[in-house]
Amino acid sequence: MAGSGNNKFDQVAIEARRAIDEREKSYRAQALKMYPHICGRCCREFTNKNLHELTVHHRDHDHDNNPPDGSNWELLCVYCHDNEHQRLLEAEQGYSSSESKKDSATHNPFANLKNMLDSKK
After folding, report:
1. Spatial contact of 37 and 53, defined as CB atoms under 8 Å apart
2. pLDDT for 5 beyond 90
3. Which of 2-6, 19-23, 36-40 has the lowest mean pLDDT?
């Protein structure tokens, strides 16, 4: 009897995954036809050999918002896509890019480079 509950859960999980896969196939196929196979952030180009590494990102983060004109999509490589979602999570937790800049270096070793090069002429 305990196994039947797990079986029911497994069936629901399988059906949910199948529905997600079908939805993704639909908008992914459309986006790949619409847009060049280039990551919208890092500009990496993709061929048929590595096209599986190019993902469809929903600009408004709503995976059910799939207008036929593709205006809510952008193609991102898996790395840039992960980065985009990480930035969203950090923003939701109250972190901002300005806070992370506080901890970055403030010294610019090239600040006087032009003057140094000009003085050598």
Report:
1. no
2. no
3. 2-6
Q: Taking phi first (over 0 means left), then psi (-120 to 50 degrees means alpha), and beta for anything else, what does residue 17 get?
A: alpha
The Cα-based distances of 106 to 101, 103, 109 in angstroms read 9, 9, 10
CATH label, 14-96, candidates 1.10.740, 3.40.1800, 2.110.10, 3.30.70: 3.40.1800
Structural domain boundaries of the chain? 14-96
Give the number of C-alpha atoms closer than 13 A to the C-alpha of residue 100, restricted to the C-beta side.
7
pTM of the model: 0.59
Which amino acid would we find at residue 66? N
Contact between residue 31 and residue 56 where contact means Cβ atoms under 8 Å apart:
yes
pLDDT digits (tens, 9 = 90+) for 41-54: 999 999 999 999 99
HEC string of 83-103 equals HHHHHHHHHHCCCCHHHHHHC
